[in-house]
Amino acid sequence: MNTMEVFVTGATGFIGSAIVQELISAGHQVIGLARSDAAAKSLVAMDAKVHRGSLEDLESLRSGAAMSDGVIHTSEEAARAMANRGVHVSIVRLPPSVHGDGDHGFVPILINMAREKDVSAYLGEGLNRWPAVHRLDAAHLFRLALEKGDARAYYHGVAEEGVPFREIAEVIGNRLKVPVVSVAPEEAANHFAWFAHFAAIDVPASSQETRELLGWKPKQYGLIADLNRDSYFKT
What we know:
It is a single chain. By secondary structure, the chain is an alpha/beta fold. 41% of the residues lie in helices and 20% in strands. It has eleven helices and eleven strands. It has helices at 16-25, 37-45, 58-66, 76-83, 106-117, 135-148, 165-176, 188-192, 196-200, 208-214, 223-227; strands at 5-8, 29-34, 49-52, 70-72, 90-93, 97-99, 120-123, 129-134, 153-156, 160-164, 180-183. A four-stranded parallel sheet has the order 3-2-1-4, sandwiched between helices. A three-stranded mixed sheet has the order 6-8-10. Strand 1 (5-8), helix 1 and strand 2 (29-34) form a beta-alpha-beta unit.
């Protein structure tokens, strides 16, 4: 495998920082976009090069991309636009739950809601399913897509095809020692507010083709096992 110099936006974020570490551990050189001194310091600590700029500064993005062999950017819409201009683009699609240390997505929202309301809730029978992936497995997939991905290909970063929402609510309730309750669909908006749509989605997804094409083999904790660790419930 030839090593590459890779420009990474969002390089100090929850997923981006894992991608940087994955690339560097595989022998690639990373140029990370940093808009602040704190972000720059974090990149240096990861042995990445620092490129000052922001997503709003188009010139900083152009210059960062120009000095690299490849770019990893987590905005699918922008990637599709570049593909339409003839750029070799592969797209990685991530599930509703990308979990792991530092998670600030859907699961922490549910945990905070359960703390505030003193109940951990699910809708109806709670059989709707959320696909999930650990952030480190997602980072590995981004690297494989960079190294081996086909132009205009879509890869599904799904380690678990569908975790029943009720199981997520039950772990949260057990860890917080609050009741686990069913909420009727007509009461969803009252309990979950703006999150009601996400609490109801049933979107099982497969990554079988992605695994076959890229040789991706997720090996980190599953969502329920990860939720049973203390890191999600530190206050």
